[in-house]
Amino acid sequence: MAQQVIVIGGGVVGLTTAWWLLEAGYRVRVLERAAEPASGASHANGGQLSYRYVAPLADAGVPLKALHWLLQRDGPLRLRPEADPRQWRWLAQFLFRCNSASNARTTAMLLRLGEHSREAMGQLMTLIPPADFAWREPGKLVLYRSPALFDAAAARARADGARDGGLVRLLSPDETVTLEPALATLAPALAGAIYTGGEAVADCRAFCLSLADLLRSHPRYDGTLPGSAQGWRVAHGKVAALETSLGPLSADQFVLAAGIQSRDLAAGAGLRLPLYPLKGYSLTAPVRPGDNAPFISVTDFERKTLYARIGDQLRIAAMVDMVGERPAIDPRRVASLTRTARAAMPRAADYAHAVAWSGLRPATPDGAPIIGATPLPNLWLNVGHGALGFTFSCGSASLLAGVMRGQPTPFPLAGLGLR
What are the residue boundaries of the FAD dependent oxidoreductase domain, all occurrences included (predicted)? Predict the structure, then answer.
């Protein structure tokens, strides 16, 4: 008889985990506290599937840049000091990793995970039509305003381009506008851009809803439970039951994939997860006939703002707000993001009717997710994906299902486990 698994979390990471576990032969139930899937960090995220642009935030020079961002009116970073040791512990670990060597190690690992995720998404798209979640593969443009930053990025891109079979192109400002006319207003401020082919955009929420439908059709899927996880019953060195608002739930295995909620739940099992909620914002603006929305996925490197056309809407996402677990939308940050978008692409969409969203992205200090085992032999983790949850979801789920089955992994997972 197949083992029963309870997956805690109905966002993109939890749902993909449920699917790959079903395909691995388990019976699966999903516990989700919200009324529908993808109600948290998966709901209106940036929509970029950046499998090759995976550089973590922690890098040499970032602490000084962060001080500059904090002084900017529309800067991408906000910090509200808390009387919470988890914030300070996370910041200390982050600063420790702000060096070139750590960044290079993590980037190399995330590139392997990104490629595996791209392949896994391709497998799933044989079952979920790409049109159902507005999937496109237009490539990605990363814009640089500073000549020094562009030169440094170009040097790295030349090496990456050789490895990626010519997918990477270095562009002057004029070449950038030729490739993406929506950037004409911004061109005078640019030093250059880097285009990477094969990068995609899609609607994460629509993907989750389609995947939830696919789960319900699977013969080993035992349904979604509408409740919240509250704690654990641990006996004889393993999880005996999950305490929930529905009462205790028993299973053979448990997978924690509940976003930032995973931090408190893990603590109840004696585990300290190095997670902090990096609050992000997005605007979803309708694209009208005659608007000049970008076709290619765009990231403004210095502004830390991305633009992705998803169907007939333009998604603009940005911000790293370290303000604790405060999900409420800050109107000042929405106004800031709107100003940034209007200045960069004034005729791209109907900003007056944009819908604002904010979400708490559970990030680790080094930017790498935590996938795999815990000291409790029947409790597993798939957490800490930060802003790349959609990008890494399919690959992380595939890896975890293999690890739980004791199967060889396609690449070493050192650096992706509990640390």
Answer: 5-401
Domain boundaries, the chain: 55-98+135-201+276-363
Determine the Cα–Cα distance for residues 381 and 364; give it in Å rounded to an integer: 13
DSSP 258: -
Query: Does the structural domain 55-98+135-201+276-363 have CATH classification 3.30.9.10?
Result: yes
| Residue 386 C-alpha from the chain's centroid | 5
Q: Are 11 and 208 in contact (CB under 8 A)?
A: yes
pTM confidence score? 0.96
b/e burial code for range 2-11 (CB count within 10 A of at least 16 → b)? eebbbbbbbb
pLDDT digits (tens, 9 = 90+) for 25-73: 999 999 999 999 999 999 999 999 999 999 899 999 999 999 999 999 9
User: How many CB atoms are closer than 10 A to CB 321?
Assistant: 20
Residue owning tokens 């890494």: 392
In this structure, the number of other CB atoms found within 10 A of the CB of residue 88 comes to 12
Where does residue 7 fall: left (phi above 0), alpha (psi -120 to 50 degrees), or beta otherwise? beta
The whole-angstrom separation of Cα 389 and Cα 363 is 10
Is the CB of residue 11 less than 8 Å from the CB of residue 257? yes
Do residues 200 and 136 touch, judged by C-beta distance below 8 A? yes
3-class state of residue 154 by DSSP: helix
Both tokens assigned to 19: 């699917």
